[in-house]
Design a protein that fits this description.
The chain is 65% helix and 4% strand. The chain is mainly alpha-helical. It has one domain. A hairpin with a 2-residue loop joins strand 1 and strand 2. The longest helix has 22 residues. The chain is flat.
């Protein structure tokens, strides 16, 4: 099991420094970005959309917390609906603009 999390010694301490909502929002953004890149035929689309989705989901979570948006689906402190809508909206806009 060479590619396990334990083979990257700097990753667990780095993740411990981040708040849990940021890690979860980032993962939701990567999932949404990867789902959007499935429809793209370009090679670098997965990395680009995953990064864009991660940043947009984190921003969506911050905005939802700031305006105290309703939380119909929540995991811990993360508003799953707001993070997913933020990521999907930005990735869709990037797709329409052909980025």
């Amino acid at each position: 099991m060479r590619n396990s999390l334990g083979s990257v010694p700097w990753l667990p301490p780095l993740l411990a420094l981040l708040p849990p909502w940021l890690v979860l929002a980032g993962l939701l953004g990567v999932i949404n970005g990867a789902a959007a890149s499935c429809s793209s035929a370009r090679r670098l689309a997965l990395a680009w959309y995953a990064l864009l989705g991660m940043l947009a989901a984190s921003l969506g979570q911050v905005v939802a917390a700031a305006v105290q948006a309703p939380r119909p689906l929540q995991i811990g402190d993360v508003n799953v609906m707001a993070t997913s809508l933020g990521a999907c909206g930005v990735v869709l806009a990037a797709r329409v603009c052909r980025l």
